[in-house]
Automatic annotation (TrEMBL):
Transmembrane segments: none annotated. Residues 402-412 have a biased composition (Basic and acidic residues). Residues 370-459 form the Transposase DDE domain. Residues 22-115 form the Transposase InsH N-terminal domain. Residues 135-156, 390-419 are annotated as: Disordered. The keyword Cytoplasm does not apply. Keywords: Plasmid. This is Transposase.
């Protein structure tokens, strides 16, 4: 028999027996106590003005909120709500005591992204890495004497590089859908300009045929069997409507004596609409399927199609990234919206120079990459910088035993680092949301991407700190056992001698 109860326990029943004290073993408490907040705050405060504007929010509060947002993979508003409801998160972001007020308005996230570029987040990641090295200094040396260092010493001068795409959260673009969206936006601009033009003396509002154009678009999308010629005809019709509306907009502006009374948002959209009409008209006239600087979204014109050739997604729409991994920490060395060749000598030189800036006391020894990084120009660039390329070799297989053994060692090193790079991309895309960037501006999107890699490096930093604590406790426990055994042996020796 199942017993049900409609009564609800009082809220006191859910509190910890030790009321008024947070659990020191909570993950957010432990993470907050390990992060070098002062050093990270210097990077954030360097973007603030000292003599203008109102006082900014504390650096720990802002950086901590960014970490909470991306670590939990939630929206800006949801991150603020999580902080408002959770005392552990409030402790993490540096609040003095529990409060039911919002830490700050969610719109501040966008302002912070405008200020912090991906170079700033790289600096924060470098600070984490060097702080981890400082904490572990001496302990790892003892571990290496006892044979517990593994491959850590060999990996210090090795960097692994790879490229990926961070897709934007936009509808999958088609020429017909893009033209239909552009047409709707042109109709909105006409509606905004018409009252001003009417007051200037224009007697009749221009016709847009919006109902007819919408019916044609919906009918085309619902048709089951569509050929290439069918798409071209439908796209041409939508393009004709768009070009007609753009001519009407020009006439409305002329009626207002050339003054464009539009907000900056619609003024930017108007410029995008003209470029979309030009590109689509060029492709329809020439029969081409591509055009330089192709726009695929009206509201995010900076997004470009990136052909990747991956299984399941031949083309991705977002920023192309070149990432380097050093000792488990990932750095965004290049981020660009237009497609580029990641094996170019200039990109390779950027990886090497960025490594030198982050590690001035260390010289890069080996560069690990796939075949695209192993072209002759890239190898010459690495050789000129005194860096050895670890990847698919050129030429015939060697015959001498020493060369064969060296190639096997390089293959093992290459496989180990390549696996880490692919694993890092899987972690940030599936776990931290790199496969769905929700920012709309070009600069805030890159900041969003860089913050994801920073949070990933924070997880690496936390795991290193945890390893050092475990190692120290193991080392101390072993020393105690050895001391007890020595004392016991001394006692027995005294008994036997007496």
């Amino acid at each position: 028999m199942i017993k049900t109860s409609s009564s609800q326990l009082s809220i006191e029943g859910f509190l910890d027996p030790e009321i008024g004290r947070l659990n020191p073993e909570n993950r957010w408490v432990k993470l907050a106590n390990s992060i070098p907040w002062a050093e990270l705050g210097l990077v954030y405060e360097s973007k603030m003005s000292t003599g203008k504007g109102s006082p900014c929010k504390p650096a720990r509060l802002v950086i901590g909120a960014l970490i909470v947002k991306h670590k939990l993979n939630v929206s800006d508003a949801e991150a603020i709500e999580q902080i408002k409801e959770n005392p552990y998160l409030q402790y993490f972001v540096g609040l003095g005591s529990f409060t039911t007020e919002k830490a700050f308005d969610p719109s501040l996230f966008t302002t912070v992204r405008k200020r912090l570029g991906y170079g700033d987040f790289n600096r924060m990641s470098s600070l984490l890495q060097h702080e981890g090295i400082r904490i572990a200094e001496g302990d790892r040396d003892e571990g290496s004497k006892d044979g517990h260092s593994g491959d850590a010493e060999d990996d210090k001068r090795v960097v692994s590089c790879d490229a990926t795409v961070a897709p934007q959260e936009i509808p999958y673009p088609t020429d017909l859908g893009l033209l239909a969206t552009a047409r709707v936006q042109s109709e909105k601009i006409i509606d905004l300009l018409w009252p001003v033009a009417r007051d200037s003396g224009l007697s009749k509002k221009p016709r847009t045929y919006r109902d007819k154009a919408h019916r044609e678009y919906v009918g085309a999308t619902r048709k089951k069997r569509k050929g290439a010629e069918f798409w071209r005809v439908c796209a041409r019709r939508q393009l004709n409507y768009l070009e007609r509306n753009l001519r009407h907009i020009d006439s409305l502006i002329e009626a207002n004596k050339g003054v464009i009374r539009l907000k900056s948002r619609f003024l930017k959209i108007l410029m995008v609409l003209h470029e979309i009409a030009r590109q689509q008209s060029l492709m329809l006239e020439t029969g081409a399927n591509r055009v330089d600087g192709r726009i695929v979204n009206v509201f995010q014109p900076h997004v470009r199609p990136i052909v990747r050739g991956k299984n399941g997604s031949d083309t991705e729409f977002g920023a192309k990234l070149s990432v380097s991994l050093h000792e488990g920490y990932s750095y965004l060395d290049k981020a660009q919206w237009d497609a580029y060749y990641e094996g170019d000598a200039e990109v390779i030189r950027g990886h090497i120079d960025n490594f030198g800036e982050r590690n001035p006391e260390m010289k890069l020894g080996k560069f690990v990459g796939d075949k695209i990084y192993g072209n002759r120009n890239a190898r010459q660039t690495m050789s000129g910088a005194g860096v050895e390329f670890v990847g698919s070799p050129l030429g015939r297989p060697p015959s001498s035993p020493e060369k064969i053994r060296e190639r096997k060692e390089n293959r093992a090193l290459h496989q180990r680092h390549r696996s880490r790079a692919e694993g890092k991309f899987g972690e940030v895309k599936r776990g931290l949301g790199l496969d769905k960037i929700q920012a709309r501006r070009a600069d805030t999107s890159l900041s969003w991407i860089a913050c994801i890699f920073f949070v990933s490096n924070l997880k690496r930093f936390q795991s290193e700190i945890f390893f050092d604590l475990v190692f120290l406790s193991w080392k101390y426990g072993t020393w105690l056992q050895d001391s007890e055994k020595k004392q016991e042996k001394t006692v027995w020796q005294n008994i036997l001698a007496g």
